[in-house]
Each structure stands twice: as C-alpha cells, then as structure tokens.
Amino acid sequence: MKIRMGMVGGGQGAFIGAVHRMAANLDGQIELVAGAFSSDSARSKASGKELFLPEDRCYGSYAEMFAAEAKLPAEKRIEFVAIVTPNFLHFPIAKAALESGFHVLSDKPATLDLAEAKELARIVEKTGLLYGLTHNYTGYPLVKEARDLVRSGKLGAIRKVVVEYPQGWLAQRLEDSGQKQADWRTDPKRAGISCCVGDIGTHAENLAEYVTGLRIESLCADLSTFVEGRALDDDANVLLRFEEKNGVRAKGLLHCSQISIGEENGLNIRVYGTKGSLAWRQEEPNTLVLRRPDQPRALVRAGDGCLGAAAKAATRLPMGHPEAFLEAFANLYRNFAALVRARKEGTTPSEHALDVPGIADAVRGMAFIETVVASSRSADKWVSLPR
Amino acid sequence: MKIRMGMVGGGQGAFIGAVHRMAANLDGQIELVAGAFSSDSARSKASGKELFLPEDRCYGSYAEMFAAEAKLPAEKRIEFVAIVTPNFLHFPIAKAALESGFHVLSDKPATLDLAEAKELARIVEKTGLLYGLTHNYTGYPLVKEARDLVRSGKLGAIRKVVVEYPQGWLAQRLEDSGQKQADWRTDPKRAGISCCVGDIGTHAENLAEYVTGLRIESLCADLSTFVEGRALDDDANVLLRFEEKNGVRAKGLLHCSQISIGEENGLNIRVYGTKGSLAWRQEEPNTLVLRRPDQPRALVRAGDGCLGAAAKAATRLPMGHPEAFLEAFANLYRNFAALVRARKEGTTPSEHALDVPGIADAVRGMAFIETVVASSRSADKWVSLPR
Amino acid sequence: MKIRMGMVGGGQGAFIGAVHRMAANLDGQIELVAGAFSSDSARSKASGKELFLPEDRCYGSYAEMFAAEAKLPAEKRIEFVAIVTPNFLHFPIAKAALESGFHVLSDKPATLDLAEAKELARIVEKTGLLYGLTHNYTGYPLVKEARDLVRSGKLGAIRKVVVEYPQGWLAQRLEDSGQKQADWRTDPKRAGISCCVGDIGTHAENLAEYVTGLRIESLCADLSTFVEGRALDDDANVLLRFEEKNGVRAKGLLHCSQISIGEENGLNIRVYGTKGSLAWRQEEPNTLVLRRPDQPRALVRAGDGCLGAAAKAATRLPMGHPEAFLEAFANLYRNFAALVRARKEGTTPSEHALDVPGIADAVRGMAFIETVVASSRSADKWVSLPR
Amino acid sequence: MKIRMGMVGGGQGAFIGAVHRMAANLDGQIELVAGAFSSDSARSKASGKELFLPEDRCYGSYAEMFAAEAKLPAEKRIEFVAIVTPNFLHFPIAKAALESGFHVLSDKPATLDLAEAKELARIVEKTGLLYGLTHNYTGYPLVKEARDLVRSGKLGAIRKVVVEYPQGWLAQRLEDSGQKQADWRTDPKRAGISCCVGDIGTHAENLAEYVTGLRIESLCADLSTFVEGRALDDDANVLLRFEEKNGVRAKGLLHCSQISIGEENGLNIRVYGTKGSLAWRQEEPNTLVLRRPDQPRALVRAGDGCLGAAAKAATRLPMGHPEAFLEAFANLYRNFAALVRARKEGTTPSEHALDVPGIADAVRGMAFIETVVASSRSADKWVSLPR
C-alpha cells in the first residue's frame, strides 16, 4: 500500500502546497488521504474536493484532523503530516502532529525562532517519530554529487565557498497588492525576524553546509531593507568563516536578495579546494562544473555514467532528459516515504532514504537566521553561531 | 474521481512505461488501476504489485485486460489505455482497446507502417473514441509559446526551419549487449522500417510542423547505417521543403542521429521568418531565444509574465523554478485526462485540453518515416509526402 | 626590419580592408608602406593619408602601384600585396602582382570562377611566389586544436560533420539602400555566381575540410533566394558526402544563410567520430567542446595547458584573457609574414608558419561554389566535386 | 604621423609588455620608437632588436632614455612613455617621465602606496602633462554601455552591486618555481602591501565605480593567505557600502581570489537598480545581460544597433565578429593617442578620447587597497575610505 499523507495548509490559491502534492504524487509511493487545507472548514472541504478527497477527511483545523485521524483504524489513518503553512504555524502544527503520533515533513524554516526549534528537537527526540524538513535543493542529483565529490577528497581541503540566492520578485511593494506570498513573508508576526534570510538565505546556508560538510562558525552580515516601509529585510550580504578542516579554515560569502530585479530563483554555489573546484546553479540543475588544475573544465551531467551512487539513485531519466525542481523535491518525499515504510515494517532504511534534512538542519537553520540578524545589528565584525 | 488508466507494457526494467506513469501521477488527475505489464502473467503481477495494484487487475495480456475490464462496473473499470510497448504492438493494442470501448493514449510512432496508421484512423473515426499520441516534446510550455509566436505573425512569413535531434547512445553495437531498448529499436520486425527516423526523427518532424504550422511537402534524405551489421538506419540528413504560406515557401533541414557520440537528447529547433526568428533546445527547455531585427536578443523564460495563454497553462511553477521533461510529458496526460473527463461529463473541453497530438499526427508521422526511407533509396532529388 | 605590405582596396568606408590592416598591425611584424586604396587617385591618397602613408606611395591603380614599386630599391619596395577588393578583382590583381614579382595574400573567394582559380594556380606555380588566402577562421587556436584532435585519431574515424554559417544581415533588400557591402555581394558581375555560398558557404566548406582532413566528394544542394528581386542566392542547404577514410565514409550537412534574422556571424562546426566528438562556435571561439563516451563533457579553453603545439603557437594571452576575430586573422598575417621572411632569408619556415590557406584552398573553394550552384539546378540527387 | 611611444619594461619573457605593444599596434596610430626594456643594457638592446628598433633607441635604464630622448628633435623623440614594470617602479618612472616632459600611460596599480599616488597627482598637476592608467577592462564596449545605461537612469537608483574577480593561478606556490609573474607579485617589496587586491581587486573596484558612477564609502574586508609561506594575501572577501544617490545607499560585495582553482580571469559585475539590472562577464565580453521587470531577459551584443555612442565608438567589427581583451586594451591606447595628438595640435579631444582612466583613478585605487588591508586587520566592522 502507498504511504498515507495528511496535509496542513495548501488550500486553493496557495503556492507551496501544490508543489508538495506534486512532489508526493510523482513516484506513486504516497497517497494524500486527508487534509486541513484551510482554517475555514468550508474552504478546506472545497480544496479537498478538487483533490478528489472524501468530505469527511477534509478538516477545518489541524487539531481536528489529528484528533479524528488518530481514531481511525491503523491501516486507514494518515501516517505522516505535510506542513505547508506560513512559518509561524510550523511549530505548533509539528508539535501537535508529533504528540498525536504522526511523523512530520515540514516546509522550512522549521519554526519562528531558535527557541522553538530547540523545543521541537526535544519533542522529536521524546516521541521518537520521524521529522523531515524540505530543504528541497539538496534533492537535486548533482547537489548530491557535489557533496560526494567534496567528501571523497577530490577537491582537497576546502578554501573558499561562494553561495548566492538572488531573487527579484519583492523589488516593489508587492505586499501592498494583496499578493498572498508577499503578504505573510514581509510580516514579522507570521514570517519571523527575517524575510529574505528566513525565506531563502536559509536554503543557501543549508546548501553550503550540505555540500561542503563544513559548519559555519562565525559570520559578518549586512542586512538591508531597500523597499521603503517594509518591516523586514529584503537583501543580505554575509561574510562567512567555516570550521577548520584538514588544516584549512574555509572562508566564504553568502548573499541573498529579493530585490535583485531580473533574477528568478538564482540559488548557486561554488566551492574551491586545494585540488579542484565545483560550481552548480539551480536554474540549470543538470550540469555540475568540475575544474581540476591542468585538465579541461568538465561538465558533469545528470545521468552521466561517471556519477556516484547518491546522484544515480536521485535520477529517474537518462542523460539529456532534464529533470528539475519538482523531481528534486520529489526525491525528499520519496526518501521520507521510504523512511516511514521502513519504520512501519521494522526494516533498515537505505542510505539514500536517510538523506532527508531533519531536525538538526531545522535547529541549524534557525541559529543561522538569528545570527545573521544579530550580526547585522552589531558593530563587532564577527559574530559566532551558537553551537 | 480521478480518471482510471490501464497500462499495456511498462513492466519491470522497461524505460518508457515508468515515464508514462510519472507523467500520469504528477497532477493527481489520473489513477493507474490496471495493467497488462508483460505478456508473462507472473511478471505482469509482480510489476503490478510494485505499483500497489491488486493482483486481480494485473493481467497476462492486453486482450485479457480489455475483456475483463469491460465487464467491470462503469465506475470501476479503466477509462483509457496507455500503450507503452515496442512499436510493432502499438497498432494491435490500440485497435483492440478502441474496439473494446476504451480511449487510447499511445507512445509513438503510432504504428509499424503507414498502412496501419491509416487503418487506425478509420477505427478511431468509427468508434468515435479519443486517441492521443505522446509526442511529448510539444508539451513544453515554450514550445507552445514558439507555436503561438509563429501563429501570431510576429516572425512574419517563415523562410527557414532547422530541426535537429542528435543522440549518441547507439554509436556502438549496444544491441549486442542485450540492452533492451537498443535490442528492439534496431530490429525491423519490432521497430518498423527505420530505427533513427522512427524513434526520434519523427519527433523532430512533429515538432517542426507543430511550431511552424507548415506541412512538409517534399524532402531529400540521406540515411546511413554507420554501425556495421545493424539492420536499420542510425543517422539521417534530410533537406525539407514546406508548403507555401504567405507567399513564401519555407526550406529546411532535419537531421537526427543515434551515433553522434556525446550528444544526449539534443532535440532543438530554429525558425526564421521575415520579421524575426526563434530558437529552442530541449535540453534547456525553459528558455526560448527570440530575435527581432534591431532589438537585443530576448531570452523568454518559462514563467515570464509576457508569455501567452498556452504557455502559461502548461506551467506549474514560477520563473526560475525549472520544469522539465516529466512536466512536459505530464501536460499531455493532464490534457488527455481533461478530454476524457469532458467526454464523460458531456462538457466542452478547454482549448488547452485539446492540445494533445492525435490521430492526424499519427498518420503524418508514419508518412514522414516512409517518405524519408523512400527518398534515401531514390536517385531522384525530391520525393513528395503523401497528402 | 618589418615585412613591407602594399594593399589594393580598403579605402575609406570599406570594411574588410580595415580588418586586414589591424590583423597586419597587431604583432608588429608587418608595415603597410603603400596602397592602391581606390581606383580614384585622390580618394586613394586621402585614404593613405589617414594611414600616415606618404603621398607618393598612394596609387590610383594596382597596375600603377606594381609598376612603381617594382622600380624602388629592394629594401624599400613592398614585399607582398594584400588584396581586399570585391571578388571580381581578386584574380586580375593577384595575377598582376605575381607577375610583377610580389607575393600575394588575398581575401576570399580567390577568384570569380573555377576557371580563373585554375589559371591562378598555374601562375603561382610558374612564378614560384607565395600565395595566401584569408580563410581567417582557420586562424583560431581552437580550430587548429580541433584539426589536431581529428588528426591524432582521438575521435576515431569520422562519421558525421555538421557545419553551419548563418547570418541575417541580408534579410531585407539592404542592397537598395546603397550599403556598399550588400551592393556588390548581390551583384553577379562583381560577386560571381553565388552570394551566400561565395561569401560565407566557402568559409564553412574550408573549415570542414581543414578540421576533418576529409575532402567533400559529392553534394546535394538546395539554394534559395528569399528576398524578392535579388539576383543571387541568399540561403543554402547542402547534404555532403566525404571521401572514405579509415573504412568510413563520413556524411554531413552544410547550411549557410544571409536571411536568418538575428543570427550574427554564426559559423560553427560539429564533428562526430567513432571514438568521440567535438564542437566549436566562432562567436565563442575560446571554447572547444570535446566529448568522449563515458567521460564528462570537456570544455577545452584557449590557453589550456593541455592544448597541442599548433593551438599554443596561435595564442598570445593566458587563459581567460579572450582572443577573438582579429587575433585569429592576425595569425594568418603573422604566418604569412614569417613565410615571406623565410623566403627572403633563405631559411626553412616553421611548421606553424606554413599553416596558411593557399592556392589549393583557392581552387577547392571555387570548385565547391560551382558544384553547389550546379547541384541546386540539377534534378540529380548527387553531384560530384571536380577533383 | 603616428604618435611616438617609448616603453619602460616589457623585455624578453615579460607578459604585460607584449600586451601593451599589441594594444598600441592594433590601430596603427602609435609607433614604438624607443625602449628601456630591461635594466640590463644588453638585454634591453636584444629585446629592442626583436621589435625592429634601432640599437641607439634601446636604453639600459629609464633615466638614460628620458635624458637621451629629451635631446632628440621634437619630431623624432618619444611623446609618451608606457610603463609596464613591476609595481614598485611605477612611481619613480612616472615621476621621471613627467618631469622630463613626457606624457605617461602606466600599468596599474599606479604606485606602491597611497602616499606615492598622492605625490604623483601633485606632479601630474604641476607638469600639466597627460597621465593614463591601464584599467583596461573599462575599454570593453559593453562596459561603456553598462556605464551609460546606469547614467541614463534606465536601471533607476542603484541598490546592489556584486563584483567578482576570481583567478586560480596562484593556488600553489608558483613563486617557488621561479615563475616571473608570481615571483614579484607575492613579494611585498615589489608588489606593495597586497598581492590579490593590488593586482586584481583594484580592477574590480575600478570597474564597479566606473559602471555605477558611485563611490565606495566604507567597507568590511576579510583577506586571506591560503598558500602557506606566502607573505601577501591571495584572496579577499569584501562587503561594500556606496555613497547615497537618488535617495538610495547601494550595498555590495567584492571578492577576488588567486586561489580559486579552475577560474581563469573571471572578472564580472552585476548591478541591480530600482528599475532593472545588468550583468557583464569579462570572459564573454560581447554580451551584456539587461533585465527589466516584465520584459524578457535581453542579451545586448557588441555591435548591436541599439547601443549607445560610447560603445559604438569602442567597437571595430560588426556583430558576431567577436572582439576581446586586446581590442579593449587597444581602446585605451587609441584614446590616449588621441589625447596626445589633440594636445600637440591644440585641438579639443573628443568625449570618447577623454574616456581613459587617469590620475584620479590612480589615487582612488591605492586608497582602496590600503583600506581593504586596514579593514582586514581591524576588529571594527566598517572602515571608511579616505576621501
């Protein structure tokens, strides 16, 4: 049987909920069987109807869903909850889901602040349930290949990391137009203490640490709010210092922006080591540029025979048949479903299935956001991340 | 309720069957409920089990499936059949499905030869059922935009068309290794009179006619078999002459290859008119290059606000969140499901839903393949396509 | 002392004359000392003055120049003549120069027709003087590398060649506007029997034969004149068959165009062998794409340590400092100057210096033009090139 | 007559001297007539001989050259001096040249430190002679177009600037191998207080200020020396704050590196304003990416009809005929020669000719280098540039 999913959020007109559903659908491993798509019961049912759900599995609140589903027979009730609401609801929903006995796969950032993230970590530990966080860009095959190239030592000791995430969609006051995505992301009550860093900077941080296997130790940030009247930042420039490894302390830059007109969704990373370098761009995700001294520049392509096991396992199609954003996202869902299945069947999940960002990434991401904001307000040059 | 699909072919180890299933899954509009995945009943059931199908809906032959499903209650039985077998089975399966009352969505080429295609056209007409053909590359949003740009007259009268489809995977005798895809594609009994043109040249032909709205009238072909001992062609170079339109008779070139080492899946098209030109490449499908005299080269991107209605309807994500092969394929499935639903509900399908290659494309494609082979054998310079 | 050059053509307002002069200047090996820049003596002197030439070395005709210069002391008179006039003058000027004892470096195509080219070959042989033809695209370092890769056998036996030369500048009747370049190129009396093939198709042919080392044996051409009222072709699509080598007869396509709106100067070539393939584009000349089975795509870059001797000798700057059109052109001039110097000093020129297209290329190019035109008019599929 | 140039430095085996000579040669406006190519008189003469100079114009020191040339008749002696030595000699040579009455065109950085630069500014003012600095990247046509786009207001008020200059050639201890370029650049006595920032960071700074018309007000730098035993920095990450303009204070990042393996000469800039953005990369210098909200991404190409006057004046060839590094460099030489000529003839130089970086850029660049080094050593977050 497919793994049964319940969703919180993602009703009509939402963006990320539909993305999660497509990601869950793609591989035919997961079935959406229930949802609290809206805090308005009628809207929730209307959304569920479009998704071919029976009315009695469409709930008016997550609390109602968790209570009702918990009473259903084990072979019918939801097994995990996908959380696709604005940020401020991530924590209470995840907490309630876990305490009701359901695994959780949550959109990022995990919580509203670091304190909540730490509390969530305690709940995950206490309940022993699965918790996944959709840092979806790590789902790309060539991001996994990049990580494995660094791990294998082929780039040598890492010296420099440049990670960027420019966007331009908030270059004007889009929030005034009633655009839903802009509205809550620029509202401290619903988004947290940062707009730009919370929404996309944290993806960049996660990507940098995922690929390099290095933790950021300290940073120096310059946050800006370029659009007048906006309560949160819409641009960030950050100097990075990583932990020392192999005798080298890597340095880096991270910058992200929502006011860089013309940029679409330009997440990209470059990593330079003592023996070689790599570069990857989200908008052209099927190419990894690999450079070694005295060798021609190599374009490693998704589907290449030379790729490692993790990249191959994350790929569905032969070379030249491009896979993209939804397939990368689906890799997280497929892996998470495999974890749920292994837990249920008492088997050991594969190494690939375990490659889902989890509660440690959740805490790490919130620590990053808070440190960037603190640094930007500080006259000190370097501010350390809490360990 | 979701639209119910039965599949013929696509058992364990098959390539294109899995692609069709992911395309069908993505949007949550279609449910796979039955299959004749293999002509071996046990293998078919084993394949079905992996797909979470009940054993009694996994059949040992398409004939068995059509007979059994026809006896099921209307709200339970399959509504359409996806055909994902080697070429020589497309026709008999499509014929049987239609004659059993099921709509058909078939992989290409539609049949083994032109005569079969014409016969199929008669059956489609007679039964009045839906027939779709997965010329999946027309599912890309920017291919639809390209077509609409030509239609709108923005490029003026079309003068020149260059369409290419290079691959390199058959540069060696892969068929000797037992590789399943290579095995049947190079076998005239199962593939038809052409390997390269039948498998990919026909996609190029379909793309050129779809985008330009012009029919190829005559052609001059040079087919090659570069790999010794191979019974069918593995490379084709073709000069094209199109029908006259707006006072201009467009000329063109089409070349396709399976021996072009290093090429992946390089379908691409360039169209030059009296007022402008466009270029599109399948491997980077989210960019359409548009060139007008005395204007900078424009890179139209998937998700661009300036796109037309067809491209927008075929797009699921905002700019910079790349969609790719499976999403384009899924556009055909989504549209076909909408046609099936409209038929069932007695409603008029949307213009977008109607944008699925059908029986006319099927006949056209087979005519193209036969004409290319005939031209290659002829000492005459130009050979006309049958009308 | 620098090698002394006289120029015929290239007066005020001319395009290609200035290109030749910059190419001659770049390396400081050549000095322009005389010119017949125009058939109007005053205009010639005015042009020469801008070039800081003394009035008495600016002539009103090439005949006058050759006569006067021949009388100057050996250490003062011109050593070679650069011919940069419209096509129809190439032959008489080259003939006169050679017969006056001057080496010749001529723009292409070498003559107005094949008969003239053969006659020119006889004159070159008879006089024993140097003759160079500015097929300047062979001057690019990575074109030389491409040739050497094929020669070395790294691509195996060549199977397929695709060479393109699209431009768009004649998409309208530019010749009506008095634009000088368009005016004579579309005039059969001054350009010869072809506009597009003579002007750029011959570069494509030369490039294909230079890189592959294979001769085109026969071809099948479809010439078009898309712009109404134009006397010559402005577009050509050609199927190619090459001589057999290593047991393989390579096939190919060549197309060139002056009506492909939006194309700039898009000469490019792809060569596919049994062991690998390469691709090169003139507009991005510092990258050569090299593809081998089961290896990542390699981007060989100008200046790469891995390059062969010919490419290195043709490069002036380190990697990442792009060289381009004028530097490639200058490579021909530098090599030709080295040949003149070696001849004068009685030394053996280096292998690199000998890498200048010469009279054989001149004859070959004219044979190609005439065969394409003949094929386009023929109902026979294949027309052979004269040997 | 051509403008007469003398050169200091650039003898056999030198890199940048040859670049300057090719740049000076290209347009035929300048003649190299004398040189102090080496501090060894015999080596200087040997170098001069290869350049076809008479022995008596090849000097053993710059002092000797200036003294001897000053005694030559006005119509024979050098008019300006090109300085192409290691950094520490730039100032004394420029000083001596100016005080001997010769205009100066110097390689960058202008001097060894800011104090020298200020002193040089006083000498330039006092002598009233011309001083140019080869920030050659500003010579690219599309860099001029970028500047003009910003100036015109088409991008609105500037919010963010990202400028990068990664190289990888010093990733190992190349200086130990005796490589001449690496040797002096890593030696504080000859290079100054910075290797990476002095050599290439200053180009990035100059480019950012040239294109945006904004001055950097303060910065926060993190310099690194990744290669053990090296006395100077080989990598720099810098946060920038620009002066306020149009009510907006632009922020930015500048990073440069000599240890980024695989990078060639990757200078590039992105500028984001309230109405649009642009991007330019030195390694593909003929394309400028221009992005406006709700318009397709535009690739402005060198030679485009839509370009402004400055870009057009800096271009020699039609679209698609790429110009590159040497042509951009030659633009500075051509402009400087025009300034010298205008001065000599008492005419007003054209606006284009005036577009040569001068003494203000020289001072500015040295201030930047010193501020970056100071900031890197400081615990304060922001350090202001001296005004």
Account of the 3D structure:
Chain A has 387 residues and is an alpha/beta fold. Chain A has 2 domains: 3-137 and 332-358, NAD(P)-binding Rossmann-like Domain (Rossmann fold, 3-Layer(aba) Sandwich); 143-317 and 364-377, 2-Layer Sandwich (Dihydrodipicolinate Reductase, domain 2), CATH 3.30.360.10. Chain A has helices at 16-25, 41-50, 62-71, 90-99, 114-127, 141-151, 180-185, 188-191, 196-212, 309-313, 325-345, 359-377; strands spanning 3-8, 30-36, 80-83, 103-106, 131-133, 158-166, 216-224, 235-245, 248-257, 268-273, 277-281, 287-291, 297-301, 383-384. In chain A, the strands form 2 sheets. The first copy, chain A, has a 9-stranded mixed beta sheet. In chain A, strands 2-1-3-4-5 form a 5-stranded parallel beta sheet, with helices on both faces. In chain A, helix 1 packs across helix 11. The model of chain A has no long low-confidence stretch (mean pLDDT 97). Chains in contact: A-B, A-C, A-D, B-C, B-D, C-D. At the C-D interface, helix 1 and helix 11 of C face helix 1 and helix 11 of D.
Name some characteristics of this structure.
homotetramer; 387 residues; alpha/beta; Rossmann fold; Dihydrodipicolinate Reductase, domain 2; 2 domains; nine-stranded mixed sheet; five-stranded parallel sheet; 12 helices
Topology:
4 copies of one chain form a homotetramer.
Chain A (H helix, E strand, L loop, with lengths): L2 E6 L7 H10 L4 E7 L4 H10 L11 H10 L8 E4 L6 H10 L3 E4 L7 H14 L3 E3 L7 H11 L6 E9 L13 H6 L2 H4 L4 H17 L3 E9 L10 E11 L2 E10 L10 E6 L3 E5 L5 E5 L5 E5 L7 H5 L11 H21 L13 H19 L5 E2 L3
Parallel strand pairs in A: 1-2, 1-3, 3-4, 4-5, 6-9
Antiparallel strand pairs in A: 6-10, 7-8, 7-14, 8-9, 10-11, 11-12, 12-13
